[in-house]
Fold this sequence. Notes:
Rossmann fold; DNA polymerase, domain 1; 3 domains; six-stranded parallel beta sheet; 10 helices; 10 strands; 43% helix
Amino acid sequence: MIRPESVTIVWQIADLSLTLPKKNHILLRMGNQIQCRNEGKDRMASWTSTVGLIAFDADDTLWDNQGHFDAVEQAYCRLLSPYGTAEQVSAALFETETANMSLLGYGCKAFTLSLIENAVSFSKGQITARKLLEVEQLGKSLLSLPVTPLAGVVNALRALRQIGRYRLVVFTKGELLDQQNKVIRSGLRAFFDDVIVVSDKTRHEYQRLCDMFDTDVSRLLMVGNSFKSDIAPVLQLGGYAVHIPFDKVWQHEVVEEYEHPRLRRLQSISDLPSLLAI
């Protein structure tokens, strides 16, 4: 008999005293034997055995990105300090980015254009050409910053390759050249079968991703930090998702989160290989 771990309620079955299993465990009677099984783990084994394609978000999943944008925004607020507080500058910039998103999309270049536009409007046209050049240089600096993999990323990707059951791809949104360059600078390119860059992560784009690999969406697992972009669209389509929150969150990615049978949450990407090796 496999004895359950927690002691709360005693059951009497065929003259055997059994403790109620802990959460997610079930008792199974097989002849004269009673077995305790982890129901949650069984369900996990079921859906991970289905997965064939694993897509990884890039920014703030494989490497830090938001931290660099935050540092640039802080320097930007200092440049515009003669015209308002940092809070006022950031709020105005957020509104400018939001208004431009449908036209400019995501990424460093779109961000830089919003920085310039907002500087002119926020200063009511008083900002000098020299200061605008400084604003431009701030934005452009994001295109050449170091791209260092987050802790555990390299070992996790190497372990998944060794498991050998999955095709691995980077699936990220933003500007094509910038995102491709970041993957190369990160030193992670060799781990992936492909790198796909899209303007936005919609359900349509996730379906196209699966079509590219001749894979049903029910065999897709998306790994990312953004519930809005990486998790919700995949769950809505019938795929699987692993949410690994990052300590910095872009305001545009903040949405209400929820639980789902095809969703798992991890504190670190280091835990991903053991999750998928069941």
